[in-house]
């Protein structure tokens, strides 16, 4: 990897811009009602960190429509499978990773009965290495929620994310782990340390979630298609079709 190109950031292609959607109060035909709808959506999406991190599974499940599909770095599949895997991760303790989320802010694009929410989040994952050395991976990323209003209720149908950058932080200063950069640099730049850590706990990371790779434009195009009422299928960040 070239040090100057690790975090290349450019404007998304104009053809992926949701030109017919309403966002904030600068657009739309009914600003007050649309603001209320955006608030409902934000409240739902913020439950990802608030409910999941506290193992409030019934509240967490209420965010999603029953057919929802989830794609994180460590798990992809139907929402029920993701909840089961999350429970197992908590039960595994230090043999897995202790995942928490800091929610920073979000935007909502609204178009009829469909919406896309992009939420800025820092994921913190605590890993325990040999001799009990604990280190946190902190990953700055963007969550993407594709929602639909069915029978008067908003719910998430698809979720995935893109990683901007990450780092490792020792929990106890002076107790660190030697991380081989030649191994780390085999993974996507936006989450290369997280991906390396996940590989060490035998959790193969999804490799197309880099905010600085071609998958960004693939995802943006699918977000626009979703808002326009078109069919969207996983893989959300790739051109291959995932059966689930």
Overall geometry comes to globular
| Unreliable sequence segments | none
Main sheet attributes: strand count, strand direction, barrel closure = 6 strands, mixed
- Helical coverage, percent range: 25-40%
What class would the helix/strand composition place it in? alpha+beta
Which H/E pattern describes the elements? HHHEEHEEEEHHH
What percent strand?
A: 25-35%
Distance between the termini: 34 Å
Molecular structure report:
By secondary structure, the chain is an alpha+beta fold. Helices cover 27% and strands 31% of the residues. Strand 5 and strand 6 form a beta hairpin. The longest helix is centred in the first third of the chain and has 15 residues, at 31-45.
Strand and helix map with partners:
Blueprint: H1 31-45, H2 47-52, H3 57-61, E1 64-71, E2 76-78, H4 79-92, E3 98-111, E4 114-128, E5 134-150, E6 153-170, H5 181-184, H6 192-200, H7 215-227
Parallel strand pairs: 1-6
Antiparallel strand pairs: 1-2, 3-4, 4-5, 5-6
Keywords:
31% strand; alpha+beta; 244 residues; 6-stranded mixed beta sheet; single chain
Summarize the structure.
Strand 5 and strand 6 form a beta hairpin.
């Amino acid at each position: 990897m070239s040090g100057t190109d690790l975090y290349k950031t450019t404007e998304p292609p104009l053809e992926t811009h949701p030109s017919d959607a309403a966002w904030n109060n600068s657009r739309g035909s009914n600003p007050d009602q649309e603001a209320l709808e955006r608030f409902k959506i934000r409240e739902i999406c913020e439950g990802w960190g608030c409910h999941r991190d506290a193992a409030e599974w019934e509240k967490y499940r209420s965010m999603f429509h029953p057919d929802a599909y989830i794609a994180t770095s460590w798990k992809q599949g139907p929402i029920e499978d993701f909840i089961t895997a999350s429970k197992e991760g908590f039960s595994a303790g230090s043999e897995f990773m202790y995942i928490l989320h800091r929610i920073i802010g979000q935007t909502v694009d609204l178009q009829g009965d469909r919406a896309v929410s992009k939420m800025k989040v820092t994921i913190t994952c605590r890993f325990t290495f040999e001799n009990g050395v604990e280190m946190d991976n902190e990953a700055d990323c963007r969550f993407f929620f594709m929602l639909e209003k069915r029978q008067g209720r908003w719910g998430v149908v698809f979720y995935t994310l893109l990683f901007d950058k990450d780092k490792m932080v020792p929990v106890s200063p002076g107790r660190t782990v030697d991380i081989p950069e030649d191994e780390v640099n085999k993974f996507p730049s936006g989450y290369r340390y997280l991906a390396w850590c996940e590989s060490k706990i035998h959790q193969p990371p999804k490799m197309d979630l880099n905010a600085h790779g071609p998958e960004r434009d693939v995802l943006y195009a699918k977000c626009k298609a979703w808002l326009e009422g078109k069919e969207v299928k996983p893989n959300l960040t790739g051109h291959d079709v995932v059966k689930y």
